[in-house]
Amino acid sequence: MGPVADTGQMTEAAGVVLDPAIAARLKRNADGLVPAVVQQHDTGRVLMLGWMDDEALRRTLTTRRGTYWSRSRQEYWAKGETSGHVQRVVEVRLDCDGDTILVAVDQTGPACHTGADTCFDADVLLTKDPSADPAGGVDG
Amino acid sequence: MGPVADTGQMTEAAGVVLDPAIAARLKRNADGLVPAVVQQHDTGRVLMLGWMDDEALRRTLTTRRGTYWSRSRQEYWAKGETSGHVQRVVEVRLDCDGDTILVAVDQTGPACHTGADTCFDADVLLTKDPSADPAGGVDG
């Protein structure tokens, strides 16, 4: 095995495995996966939730394309590979206990495979309670 | 067993189980849980990721307090119960394949148990690539 790059500026060629300093902070589920919340960087809209293993995170960090592990197809999935609806990665953060990733992206086209802007557009379970805010209409 | 309320206006007394029409759309993991992305409703900041079973979702919908299942403590956890850092629930959405919940809240105080505003404040894995945006400085 060759040496492992551990700088923040890994190239894809250098980054053959995920930076061990990052890998050590990840808390994976029984399948080796961590949920990744994907958010449009400028509007703050939550687009989707994907799942990453170490390799998907490595690819996301090194290629700056949102890349996930497809649990249904059991394969890596670079968002937009077939649809063209790619995600340019602006920022990646890890949460306080290392078991959730937050990915800020610039999404090209709709994020959802249904053609909706986000995966959360269609099914509203609860809306704002008007009685909680007598002034009304100020919530985003 | 008594009748089950199935309106959107369930009171806590009436909502003894989660609305079956919602329960039928949920896709739970092997532990019966669904990840819940929690977002500040007006700024769009992602605050944390919690986990809900049917009962946590029922409590969240009926009490309008963000309520989760603590995997470490194996108990329900109404955010802010002890800290006072409660979440007033503004909106709840389900994603296109029923396996992720998005909760828009009005967060009182810091969302993270570390005292940080969000659980994603401390650990940045990748920041914006300045070369990708020659104009610079426009990303949120």
Please characterize this protein's 3D structure.
The structure is a homodimer of 140-residue chains. Chain A is mainly beta and 140 residues long. Chain A contains two helices and seven strands, in the order αββαβββββ. In chain A, the strands form two sheets. The first copy, chain A, has a four-stranded mixed beta sheet, covered by helices on one side. In chain A, a hairpin with a 4-residue loop joins strand 3 (67-70) and strand 4 (75-78). The termini of chain A are far apart. In chain A, 34% of the residues are buried. The model of chain A is unreliable at 1-13 and 136-140 (pLDDT under 50). At the A-B interface, strand 1, strand 2, strand 5 and strand 7 of A face strand 1, strand 2, strand 5 and strand 7 of B.
SSE blueprint:
2 copies of one chain form a homodimer.
Chain A: H1 20-23, E1 34-40, E2 46-52, H2 54-63, E3 67-70, E4 75-78, E5 87-94, E6 101-107, E7 123-126
Parallel strand pairs in A: 1-6
Antiparallel strand pairs in A: 1-2, 3-4, 5-6
